[in-house]
Specification:
By secondary structure, the chain is mainly beta. It has helices spanning 33-52, 59-74, and strands at residues 8-15, 23-28, 79-90, 95-101, 107-114, 119-124, 130-135, 140-146, 153-160, 164-169, 175-180, 186-192, 199-201, 212-217, 223-228, 234-239, 251-254, 259-264, 270-275, 280-286, 293-295, 299-300, 304-309, 315-321, 327-333, 345-348, 354-359, 365-370, 375-381, 388-390, 395-396, 401-413. The chain has a six-stranded antiparallel beta sheet, with no helix packed on it.
C-alpha cells in the first residue's frame, strides 16, 4: 500500500483588532493514494469473485462488499490542529514579528521580516489569507500573502498612499479604507481584488483633515468611523457606497483631546474613541440609519491606546501607555442598552508601556504588545467574569511594536 497522500482543509478566522470574525473554508488535494489502492483492490477482487461465482451464487458481490468495509476501516482518522498566528508591526525597527500561539496560549516567535518604513497599522482579511501593513513614512500599504499551514508571510505587492497609518477592511471583503496621517491628512477608499488582494482606488479621498490615524467599519458595513488626532479634534462617520465602496462626506462632531484609536462594539450600535491627550475613552451612540453620532460620558484611563472587545461584547479592553513605563490593560463593562462604560479594573502585564491589543477570535485570551520593553504577552480571559490574568512569558518583538492582529486557523490533515 502506498503512503497516505496529505489532504489539508484550512478554516481561517481573522481577528482584526477592530472587526468581527468571519469564516471561510478551502480544501486542497482531496484525492488520496489509499483511495486509489482501494479502488484497484476492489477491481481485482471483483474479477476474482466474478470468476469464483460463475455458478450463479452471490459469493462474489458479498466478498466485494466485505473488501470495501475493510478499506473504510483501514482509513486513518484526520489529524486536527488549531493554528493561531499573531502579526506585530514594529515602527522603529521597520519589521514584522510573527508569533505562533498554541492551544495552551503559549506564544513563540516563528518569523521576522522587514517591511516599509514606519509601519503603524496591521490588518488581516476576513479569510486569513492576507495581511496589510500601513507604512507611514514609506507612503504605502504593503500586502502580504499568508501561508495556509505555517502562517508565514510573503510580500505580494504595495499600494501608494501618503502617510498611510491604518487599513480598515469592509465586512464583505470587497473594500478597504486607508487613513493618511500627516502629511497625508486624508482617508481613501479602495476596491479589493478577490484573487490577489490588490487595492485599487475608488471615489475621491476625503481630504483637508488633521491627521486621521485609525479607522474602523461598523458591522453593518454602512459607515467608516475615524477620529482626527490633531486640532480641531473630531469624531467622524463617513457613509460607504454599497456598490462602489466610495466614501461620502463625513458627519463630524467634536471629540476629546488627541483622539486616535477607534473601536465599534459587536452590535454596531456604539463606537468608542481613545483620547490619548485627555486620558479618557468616550462612548458614542451610532444612528444606524444616518450614521449620526451622539457622545456619552468619558471614562478615565491613563493614556489609552488600543481598544478591543471581548467576544461577548460585554467588556471593552484598553491598553494603557502609562508615563511611569508600567504595562497594564484596563477593562470596562459595557451597558448593553446605552453603551456606557462602567468602573475600570486594571491588570498588570509585566511589560513596559502597553500599546496595542488583539483578542483571540475564540475569546479565550488577549495579546498585549509593549512598545517600551519591545515584547508581547498573552493574558487569559476568564469565561464568565472576563477578567484578565497574565498567562504566558514575555516574548521578544522588534523595536517599537505599535499594532497587532491575529489569525485563527483550523488545519485538518488527512
Amino acid at each position: 500500500m502506498q503512503n497516505l497522500r496529505q489532504s489539508t482543509v484550512i478554516l481561517a478566522v481573522a481577528s482584526l483588532v477592530r472587526c468581527a470574525p468571519m469564516v471561510t473554508v478551502g480544501q486542497h488535494a482531496p484525492c488520496s493514494a489509499d483511495a486509489a489502492d482501494a479502488g484497484l483492490d476492489a477491481s481485482v477482487a471483483d474479477a476474482s469473485d466474478a470468476e469464483a461465482g460463475s455458478d450463479g451464487s452471490l459469493d462474489g458481490s458479498t466478498d466485494a462488499r466485505a473488501d470495501a468495509d475493510v478499506s473504510e476501516r483501514d482509513a486513518a482518522p484526520p489529524t486536527v490542529t488549531r493554528a493561531r498566528t499573531a502579526y506585530i508591526v514594529n515602527s522603529t525597527s521597520n519589521d514584522i514579528t510573527v508569533l505562533a500561539i498554541d492551544d495552551a496560549a503559549v506564544a513563540r516567535r516563528v518569523q521576522s521580516l522587514s517591511t516599509g518604513e514606519t509601519p503603524y497599522g496591521v490588518t488581516a482579511d476576513r479569510d486569513g489569507r492576507r495581511v496589510y501593513v500601513a507604512n507611514a513614512a514609506a507612503n504605502r500599504v504593503t500586502r502580504y500573502d499568508v501561508d495556509a499551514v505555517t502562517g508565514a508571510l510573503r510580500e505580494a505587492g504595495a499600494t501608494a498612499f501618503t502617510g498611510a497609518s491604518f487599513v480598515a477592511l469592509h465586512p464583505t471583503g470587497r473594500f478597504a479604507f486607508v487613513t493618511g496621517f500627516t502629511p497625508g491628512d486624508s482617508v481613501g477608499a479602495f476596491t479589493v481584488d478577490p484573487s490577489t488582494g490588490a487595492l485599487s482606488p475608488t471615489g475621491a479621498p476625503i481630504a483637508a483633515m488633521t491627521s486621521p490615524f485609525n479607522a474602523v467599519v461598523d458591522v453593518s458595513g454602512q459607515f467608516l468611523l475615524y477620529a482626527t488626532s490633531r486640532a480641531p479634534f473630531t469624531m467622524n462617520a463617513a457613509r460607504i457606497d454599497p456598490g462602489t465602496g466610495a466614501l461620502s462626506a463625513a458627519q463630524t462632531i467634536p471629540a476629546g483631546t488627541t483622539p486616535r484609536y477607534v473601536a465599534v462594539d459587536p452590535t454596531g450600535r456604539f463606537a468608542y474613541v481613545a483620547n490619548i491627550g485627555a486620558n479618557t475613552i468616550t462612548p458614542y451612540a451610532i444612528d444606524r440609519a444616518t450614521g449620526a453620532l451622539t457622545a456619552g460620558s468619558p471614562v478615565s484611563v491613563p493614556s489609552p491606546r488600543g481598544l478591543v472587545f471581548s467576544s461577548t461584547g460585554r467588556t471593552l479592553y484598553a491598553s494603557s501607555y502609562a508615563a511611569d513605563m508600567t504595562g497594564s490593560v484596563a477593562a470596562m463593562p459595557v451597558d448593553p442598552a446605552t453603551g456606557a462604560l462602567g468602573a475600570v479594573t486594571t491588570t498588570p502585564t509585566g511589560g513596559r508601556q502597553t500599546f496595542a491589543l488583539a483578542m483571540d477570535p475564540g475569546g479565550r485570551w488577549l495579546l498585549a504588545v509593549h512598545s517600551a520593553s519591545n515584547d508581547a504577552r498573552v493574558l487569559s480571559v476568564a469565561p464568565r467574569s472576563e477578567r484578565l490574568t497574565a498567562a504566558g512569558a514575555l516574548v521578544p518583538c522588534g523595536t517599537g511594536p505599535v499594532a497587532v492582529t491575529v489569525i485563527d486557523r483550523l488545519v485538518i490533515e488527512r
